[in-house]
Specification:
This protein has 17 helices and 20 strands. The longest helix has 17 residues. It is of the alpha/beta class and 506 residues long. It has three domains: 234 residues, P-loop containing nucleotide triphosphate hydrolases (Rossmann fold); 170 residues, 3-Layer(aba) Sandwich (Rossmann fold), CATH 3.40.50; 76 residues, no CATH class. Bound molecules: adenosine-5'-diphosphate and magnesium ion. Magnesium ion binds next to helix 1.
Length: 506
């Protein structure tokens, strides 16, 4: 047996107030695809950042191919043949693929024509060997996100990495691109490379990995043979209890037309249209999902309906009345509730207490202010206690808990409680479970179904196709600011949706 590619033994890393890695062990065989599984905050990125020399561990030992090493910087890691593809790419958009790949390598020499030609040739060869189909001369701004990720892969292959770390690489990809990436993994290991693949998606682990190490709250839980473990066993190890994947729901009973978008165009932050002539209808008592890959106009769409962004042209009709020029406050009054994508920027005031956050939109009403304009504190506390109980908000200090001291899942529950409490007819949920743990996700999913069943029109915008498929009654796929196609959820198949997401109009 050759020595393992990687052994990390009893790795501990403490950040102020949190033990990110607590005596963690990881052993990865050469030529393997090894998955690292864990919920948000489990310590996966920290462990890999230690392996890549971005953090120094407080204690623990690292061996690479059987030899004990100290990895003090990414340069040390590169010299040991370790490369990392980060969650966010680090590419320069108006440079070519090859220029990006050699960037940083030839700092002392200006690139001569000959250097560049040689580099282009080598990039083409690497692309060919690993089946990446990357054009060495393409500009980054003209290629898809999936291709950009392959440029990041080429960047580390160019530096002769034979241990490749991928931190949640599938989060930004369409289902087709995910399949292709997993094929590339197999191609890489067939050529002798070793892969560590971070994900929280069990399906992907089942499809690609041989072994899987599970972390939970900074601790090492187990390493298992993926073929021998079921998805629910893996989930249970990840979460620490059994998990219910199936969301029980009755068929929708749609009522009146609540929201109608007509040929809506919205300008995004860069001054170019982000939503381009989008039309959509949402009825009472149904959940309509907007499926799509990041960067296709989703936040701008939600912001325009809620009144956070102006409408350039087209109409937003709420029960037949055009509200596209109304203030945020009036749209609230008219029955639009919004769980925003950025819960820190638009959802909460972090320095405020839970009870204050729960009345942000209603404190001027007679329930919470007396005629002289003073707040009625006992009514506010009573209201907060009711919602804390009703929405299972874990707030250590009750209504007085500061929002910033709570976990992401509980912050999200505060926002959802506030919005639902106003009994909106239209509830817009933008990435409502992003970054939350399984317990909070289960709760929020159940709540979305409940609100639908109470007759609200729910518009769910999510990058998680599984979330859309399991919750929605109708699915609209957004691509480049337009609805590329619409399907009843029962008939939707993942590949078809994936094709629409990728811009193939159906
Ligand atoms: N640079 C940092 N400073 C302080 N705390 C951090 C830092 N990086 C991560 N953490 C904390 O360490 C824990 C593990 O985080 P992370 O390794 O990013 O988890 P994962 O990648 O599994 O989601 C979390 O509680 C996180 O908030
Ligand atoms: Mg991470």
């Amino acid at each position: 047996m050759p020595a393992p590619a990687i052994e990390m033994i009893n790795i501990t890393k403490v950040f102020p107030g949190v033990i990110a890695n607590d005596q963690v062990n990881l052993r990865v065989e050469q030529g393997a695809i090894h998955a690292l599984l864990g919920e948000n905050g489990a310590g996966k990125s920290t462990l890999m950042s230690i392996l890549f020399g971005l953090y120094e561990p407080d204690s623990g030992i690292i061996k690479i191919r059987g030899k004990r090493v100290k990895i003090r910087s990414p340069n040390d890691a590169t010299a040991l043949g370790i490369g990392m593809v980060h969650q966010h790419f680090r590419l320069i958009h108006n440079f070519t693929v090859t220029e990006n790949i050699i960037l940083g390598l030839e700092l002392r020499r200006r690139w001569g024509n000959l250097d560049l030609r040689n580099a282009e040739k080598r990039v083409a060869e690497l692309s060919e060997t690993y089946g990446l189909s990357v054009d060495p001369l393409a500009r980054i701004e003209n290629i898809t996100v999936g291709m950009q990720q392959r440029v990041e892969i080429l960047k580390i292959l160019y530096r002769n990495a034979d241990i490749l770390i991928f931190d949640e690489p599938t989060a930004v990809l369409t289902p087709q691109e995910i399949d292709e990436l997993l094929n590339i993994f197999h191609r890489l290991t067939a050529e002798g490379k070793t892969i560590i693949f971070i994900t929280h998606k069990l399906k992907e682990i089942k499809a690609a990995a041989g072994r899987c190490t599970i972390l939970r709250r900074g601790r090492y839980i187990d390493t298992v043979d993926v073929n021998a473990a079921s998805e629910s066993e893996l989930a249970e190890k990840m979460v620490g209890r059994s998990v219910n994947f199936r969301i029980e729901k009755q068929p929708a009973r749609p009522g009146d037309l609540i929201l109608k978008l007509e040929d809506l165009t919205v300008t995004g932050s860069r001054g170019v249209p982000a939503v381009r002539g989008l039309s959509l209808e949402v009825y009472a008592g149904e959940t309509v999902g907007i499926a799509g890959v990041d960067g296709n106009g989703q936040p701008e769409l939600a912001a325009a309906i809620a009144g956070l962004l102006p409408v350039k042209s087209g109409k937003i009709l709420l029960k037949g009345r055009d509200v596209s020029r109304e203030s945020i406050k009036n749209r609230n009054k008219d029955g639009i509730g919004m769980v925003p994508e950025d819960r820190h920027k638009h959802g909460l005031i972090l320095d405020f207490r839970v009870d204050e956050n729960l009345i942000l939109k209603s404190f001027r009403g007679k329930n919470y202010s007396n005629p002289a304009g003073f707040l009625r504190f006992s009514a506010i506390a009573k209201h907060a206690n009711f919602l804390i109980e009703e929405f299972d908000i874990r707030a250590g200090n009750g209504p007085a808990t500061l929002a910033k001291s709570m976990s992401g899942g509980n912050q999200q529950k505060v926002i959802i409680a506030r919005e639902i409490d106003l009994s909106p007819e239209l509830l817009i949920m933008s990435q409502p479970t992003r970054g939350l743990d399984v317990g909070a996700i289960e709760y929020i999913h159940r709540r979305i179904i409940e609100e639908r069943d109470k007759g609200r029109a729910v518009l769910l915008i999510s990058f998680e196709l599984d979330e859309i498929l399991s919750l929605c009654d109708r699915i609209a796929v957004i691509s480049q600011g337009r609805i590329a196609g619409e399907l009843p959820a029962g008939e939707a198949d993942e590949r078809q949706i994936g094709a629409l997401m990728g811009g193939l109009h159906g």
